[in-house]
Amino acid sequence: MKTITPMKAWMAAATAEEQEVLAHRTQTTRGNLYQYAGGHREASASRAGAIEAATADMHRLSKGRLPKVYRTDLCEACRACQYAAKCLGSRAVVSDFPIVDARQLELAL
Questions:
Q1: pLDDT digits over 17-50, tens only?
Q2: Of 33, 47, 80, 109, which is the most exposed, with the fewest CB atoms less than 10 Å away?
Q3: Alpha-carbon distance 92 to 26, whole Å?
Q4: Which letter, b or e, does each residue of 6-30 get, where b requires 16 or more Cβ atoms within 10 Å of its Cβ?
Q5: Longest Cα–Cα distance in the chain
Q6: pTM tops 0.85
Q7: What sign does the dihedral 71-75-77-80 (CA atoms) show?
């Protein structure tokens, strides 16, 4: 069963140009963003924090069209960090963008 991660949902909602902007703002490449989205690579804590900040700004600028991606969505170390849990509260484990599996998508049709 495949799941849609928050980063994968962000990549699907973003245009190629917006993906390039995110890559530039977080000092990485679109290829790496796709690796994070597919779960093939895990972002470092600093890169996950940069992605969190950039996607929050892009969420605001897009009037909510682009979801926020939290550092805890991208990095195991951030999920285990007591400071991230304190700062993010319940968002430290659960993203604003729902994770949907294939079965749920089939039921929605």
A1: 999 999 999 999 999 999 999 989 999 999 999 9
A2: 109
A3: 20
A4: bbbbbbeebeeebbeebbeebebee
A5: 40
A6: no
A7: positive
